[in-house]
């Protein structure tokens, strides 16, 4: 892995990375974000979701995460617009009763999908915050990270709790 910033040209100006000469390969990325909710919100948890006046929280967050992942190129400067072939967002409570969001994005292409997975997990977390804030503002979004990626020059896998 290079220790150079890839989005700067020789003069130090912002520049989109030219992927024109790269070979398309299968690329996947998994990102995770944790949302910590207080008991005032968790008491509304039933049958794998939290239900509020705005609707089912986790189901809405899943849709928001997928929609955000698909629009990552519009949100992050210099990020390539990608036609995702798959994007899955999964949300569950772990043993500590924290909300664990995982977003997996994949495609066959010339550049990776890490930003799409990270964007999907992050927007899903923000959606949970938005839908639950009327019950309590004691909500923390933490530990957003790339868990693993495959394809491209080098694979990556972070050791994380199964949480």
Plain-language structure description:
There is one protein chain. The protein has 163 residues and is an alpha+beta fold. It has a domain at 39-151: 2-Layer Sandwich (Alpha-Beta Plaits), CATH 3.30.70. 25% of the residues lie in helices and 32% in strands. The protein has four helices and eight strands, in the order βαβββααββαββ. The chain has helices at 39-42, 57-70, 72-75, 114-132, and strands at residues 25-36, 45-46, 49-52, 55-56, 86-93, 99-109, 140-150, 156-157. The strands form two sheets. Strands 5-6-1-7-8 form a five-stranded antiparallel sheet, with helices on one face. β5 and β6 form a beta hairpin. The longest helix is centred in the C-terminal third of the chain and has 19 residues, at 114-132. The two termini are 29 Å apart.
N/C terminus separation: 29 Å
Q: Please give the order of strands in the largest beta sheet.
A: 5-6-1-7-8
What percent of residues are in strands? Answer: 25-35%
Listing every helix as H and every strand as E from the N terminus to the C terminus, the arrangement reads EHEEEHHEEHEE
Rounded to an integer in angstroms, the radius of gyration calculated over CA atoms is: 17 Å
CATH topology of the domain at 39-151: Alpha-Beta Plaits
The shape is elongated
At the fourth level of CATH, the homologous superfamily of the domain at 39-151 is Molybdopterin cofactor biosynthesis C (MoaC) domain
The residue ranges in which pLDDT falls below 50 over 5 or more consecutive positions are none
Q: Examine the secondary-structure arrangement and name the CATH architecture of the domain at 39-151.
A: 2-Layer Sandwich
Percent range of helical residues: 25-40%
Can you summarize the main beta sheet? 5 strands, antiparallel
Briefly note the structural class of the backbone: alpha+beta
Q: Would you state the CATH class of the domain at 39-151?
A: Alpha Beta
């Amino acid at each position: 892995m290079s220790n150079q910033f890839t989005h700067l040209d020789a003069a130090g100006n912002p520049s989109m990375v030219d992927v024109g000469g790269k070979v398309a390969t299968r690329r996947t990325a998994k990102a995770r974000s944790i949302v910590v909710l207080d008991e005032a919100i968790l008491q509304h948890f039933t049958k794998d979701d939290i239900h509020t006046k705005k609707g089912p929280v986790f189901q809405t967050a899943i849709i928001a995460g997928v929609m955000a992942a698909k629009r990552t190129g519009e949100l992050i400067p210099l990020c390539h617009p990608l036609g995702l072939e798959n994007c899955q967002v999964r949300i569950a409570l772990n043993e500590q009763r924290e909300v664990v969001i995982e977003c997996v994005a994949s495609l066959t292409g010339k550049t990776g999908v890490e930003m799409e997975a990270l964007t999907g997990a992050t927007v899903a977390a923000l959606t949970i915050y938005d839908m639950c804030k009327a019950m309590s503002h004691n909500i923390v979004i933490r530990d957003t990270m790339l868990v693993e990626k495959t394809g491209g020059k080098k694979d990556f896998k972070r050791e994380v709790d199964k949480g």
